[in-house]
Amino acid sequence: xxxxxxxxxxxxxxxxxxxxxxxxxxxxxxxxxxxxxxxxxxxxxxxxxxxxxxxxxxxxxxxxxxxxxxxxxxxxxxxxxxxxxxxxxxxxxxxxxxxxxxxxxxxxxxxxxxxxxxxxxxxxxxxxxxxxxxxxxxxxxxxxxxxxxxxxxxxxxxxxxxxxxxxxxxxxxxxxxxxxxxxxxxxxxxxxxxxxxxxxxxxxxxxxxxxxxxxxxxxxxxxxxxxxxxxxxxxxxxxxxxxxxxxxxxxxxxxxxxxxxxxxxxxxxxxxxxxxxxxxxxxxxxxxxxxxxxxxxxxxxxxxxxxxxxxxxxxxxxxxxxxxxxxxxxxxxxxxxxxxxxxxxxxxxxxxxxxx
Length: 356
Fold this sequence. Notes:
2 helices; globular; Quinoprotein_ADH-like_sf
């Protein structure tokens, strides 16, 4: 398999590949070769939902556009955030308090009676909405938007951080749903499997004998790596994490956690390891992410970065592209219609296309 670089677009601040390519520059939004002005102030975020564009700036202003560029609504006191393909997250001011709701594809607002939630950690599908409130997981049935259960993280006890201090477990992200299980990434190197119907804890993963370094007096040793790096595979049967020079997996059927060294694979391309990431682009055969080159082997005073195609079956790197004179922050690659998208640290959007 192989990709070639099809295009570079400079000065891109944010982008979204949702049926069509949308990208933001300093003060304009581009879509299908068209552009239209947005705010004079910096953009906080934008979402594409139900053939509309929702944009917020840093000062609490918002605009809603048609994809033609026509403004449908604008004002202040509303904010929009990603939840799923089925629902758009929505926050608004009411009597001085921030209320949270969802908007469905029929433009119906589902009020959740959530007030002043101070994080953007959430998950939804067609049937459930989960969010974090005061370190408790709340689960609402959809579309009724009724509270179904709560899970208190305090019941997990505490964990010892790398400095030896006791800390409460916190949710880092919702990984996704497997069968009737909600998979939750927590601090303290713990993943939870919570029954999505009842809120009961089915399983948890934390131990991984033999994995990890002996630094910090071994407090991080023999445990799975930082859990916000795990992703549910496209087959929805296991979790995986490309952690440094290792592939760490959790088989959801057997419950077994395992790890494999990828040192030889990386050395073939003078890579030192995979860069930490909270997610990956993925198809049935490959995982797409960023790998860092071994600067000492190359005799360089900086670390070159490459976007790579990692083969799930052979555990080999089948393709890579080196960002010459550029770098990548934390932006996760996106994959759609044989095209691979990567936003660089210098705000260049690279578009690669698969060779047939």
